[in-house]
Amino acid sequence: MEERRQLSEITDTLRTFIGVLEKRKWFAIAVLIATIGVSLLLASKQSPVYKATATIIIEKRSPTVLSRVQEVIELGTSDYWSMKEYMQTQLEILKSRRLAKRVVDKLTLALDERFLGLDGANPPLSEAEKRRRMAKMDAVAVLMGRIEVEARMDSQLVLVSVEAPDPHMAQDLANALVTEYRQENLEYKKRVVSDAISELRDMLLRLKQEKEEAEAKVLEFERRHAMGSLESRKRSVEEKLRTYDERYLQAGIDRSDLESSPLRDQLDLQIVALEALLGEKDFSRVAHPILVESTTISLLKQKLVDLETKVRELTGRYGPKHPMMKAAYSQRKLVRNTLQREALMLLEAELIKLRKAHTEESDKLVKSIQMEDELRKMLERAKEEETELVKLELDYGPLKKGKEEVEKHYESVKERYSETSLSAQVETNNVRIQDLAPLPDLPIRPNRKLSLLIGVFLGLLLGVGAAFFVESLDSTLKTREDLEVIMGVDFLGLLPAIGEMDRPDVAGPHEQPELFVHHFPKSSITEHFRTVKTNLFFSRPGERLRHVLIT
Fold first, then answer.
1. Do 159 and 149 contact (CB within 8 A), yes or no?
2. In angstroms, rounded to a whole number, what is the distance separating the alpha carbons of residues 160 and 99?
3. Which among 441, 462, 445 is positioned nearest to 42, based on CA atoms?
4. Hey, CA dihedral for 344, 345, 346, 352, is it positive or negative?
5. What element of type H or E holds 462?
6. Which is deepest, 52, 182, 238, 404, by most CB within 10 Å?
7. Could you give the dihedral angle defined by the CA atoms of residues 132, 136, 139 and 144, in that order, rounded to the nearest 10 degrees?
8. What does the mean pLDDT of the chain come to?
9. Pairwise CA distance, residues 252 & 254, whole Å
10. Strand, helix or coil at 162?
11. Residues 416-425 pLDDT 10s
């Protein structure tokens, strides 16, 4: 049922579409004819544009003329991906501004009013106005906008096309473009080779100078050093090395003994301990040997103990503000301060004594280290002297070898300079002009056939659209759906008009149209009346109609 409903909707839509076209066909045909006429009129007013195409070949490599001479620059490449990038680069060069400027300068297009499109102005321009516009226009940009480059698939062919309003101009522009491209490619090679020759020349001069300097150094070395006197100097240096080495070993042993001396370690521990004691606030409880051996400290400590005992006894009897308590406190403070001062003096004196002893031990170690350093320096100087003697024997070899290497480099660059100079005289190019652009016979624009086809297509679309637009503006009632939707009433049936075509030709009762159903009960018109009657009776199911108003 769903498929039938959809099919019915599609059928109704098509029927409506065809009905509208049938009804508005003359209007649609008028729009179609008008559109075709406009397109042909516009095509006839367009200026003709001609297209000339030249063909060039961009080879992978330039021809090899000198087989044993390596080129400075290779035009092209043999690798697939590199060649793909190279071809894409060349296509961009063909459309570049630099190449277009060469063509413009060669053909003086900046002053060509036909090329710039100033000859067909309406109304015609004066010479002053033409010159003013020529000065403002960019002839290079105009030419770049007319260039089209296409690489043929799976080949080395490249099509270079140029559009122009004149066939001869299009031909000249295309041929000039490929010719200048080939010439620029050759000039690029020449420029690179020329730069290489200049660099090789500078390098050759520099190497020649280095070669002469190396030869001079070898001669100077042979003149300045006598090889026979080196033996006696070597024996003297060997004797020094043996003596200094023995003394240096003995100094190292002495320095090690002093570094591991237990006396200095003991002094370090005593100094650290004494420095820690000096930070104490109460020396009455410190049992350092210096304080224990001091008679004064012992008496002061005994006196302090007695005063402490006295203070405790008085504390049980008197308060802290009692004169006797104050006197006891004062005596205890005095004795304690005296004890602190005497103990501090004794400890500081002992610390000075220990530091002095430690300094004496350290001085011994410093002198031993200085002696060892001095012997080490003397030994190093002797070794340096020995090394210098060995270098004198070895310096001649590197000087001579360096001279030979410079001579080798000089000869290599000299040979390469000769090859490059020779290759500069050979004009090889990997760009070849396969076909110059022929004179175009017909313009590529305007295309009247294409304009006609476009006009027909647009005319059909606009005609159909206009027909439906006019149909949408028609507000009259024409169909059953219009009655039910717009008027909001039920459709009972369609009663056709009884005309002459519906009546028999013979005379009879059919001459009374109001009795047509009675006289012709089996006609198609009578069937329409019966349909209205049936729909009218069934419009109120369950009720019997007694009154019917027809207006």
1. yes
2. 13
3. 445
4. positive
5. helix 448-473
6. 52
7. -150
8. 76
9. 5
10. strand
11. 878 777 766 6
